[in-house]
Design a protein that fits this description.
Blueprint (H helix, E strand, L loop, with lengths): L1 E5 L8 H11 L3 E5 L23 H12 L4 E6 L9 H20 L4 E4 L9 H21 L3 E5 L20 H10 L5 E5 L2 H5 L6 H5 L4 E6 L1 E4 L1 H7 L9 E4 L8 H10 L5 E4 L10 H15 L7
Parallel strand pairs: 1-2, 1-10, 2-3, 3-4, 4-5, 5-6, 6-7, 7-10
Antiparallel strand pairs: 8-9
Amino acid sequence: MQLGFVSAILPELSLADVARNAAAIGFDCVEVCCWPVSKAERRYAGVTHIDVTDFSPARADDVQATLAETGVRISGLGYYPNPLTPVAEESAAAVAHLKKVIAAAPLLGLDRVNTFVGRDWTKSVDDNWPRFLEIWRPLIKFAEDHGVRIGIENCPMSFSKDEWPGGKNLAISPAIWRRMFADIPSANFGLNYDPSHMIWQHMDYLQPLREFHEKLFHVHAKDVRIDRDRLNDVGILAMPAQYHTPKLPGLGDVNWGQFFSTLTDVGYQGPVCVEVEDRAYEGPLAARLASLRQSHTYLRNYIPTE
């Protein structure tokens, strides 16, 4: 396994500076954010460390040269929009840019792109399904044609009033993953698995590692704490942000020893990237770099240096 982090936590730094900091701390890799250059529409979005808008082999060579100076690799390219949004123009723009991210990956010698399936949060899962197939069947075919594996993160995206309760991402549970992979049976369609999203949904976060081990393309290391006093006060029907708190690995309810024990049991050899969404560390750059150092120190207990 390779230890890395998601570049979204360092939005003000250039790719070169992200890589230099990663190397200085001791990380093996970075998941590089590739949003369109624009204003962020939500937290952790809109970060562009590689602009794939008009990507070319020459620009790919520049990126490779930048990384070669540090020895840090790219674990995958990350872009997390809502391709199934009911706003047609936004959906079309998300799909078009996702294709650009997919096309950029092989130019960089990569075969991983991480994203969301998306969802029309005003409709049921069943009512979303025809559009899911309409959009994602050709997207996965496009990825296959480029030799790219698509890792879908399992975040429900149900954190604000307009997202709750449906959420803006269908791929939230084993039941839905089975249906997705049955209807789009591609070796290039899999998961970017984050155990923290299972915790606050009160689900087993280890069993999916066993059942879907062949679909584990990429892993996010994020922890979460269930605030029991708040949960007892507001109940599970309240917006999730009212009773859970994202934390750095080791500061929440994920048992990382059991998690990595299961990962090794199923033979996972890919990247594990820290995703910092702990607001206690979201202040100045120094605090965010400290969060990466702390996460690196903790997770090296489970992922030895290569």
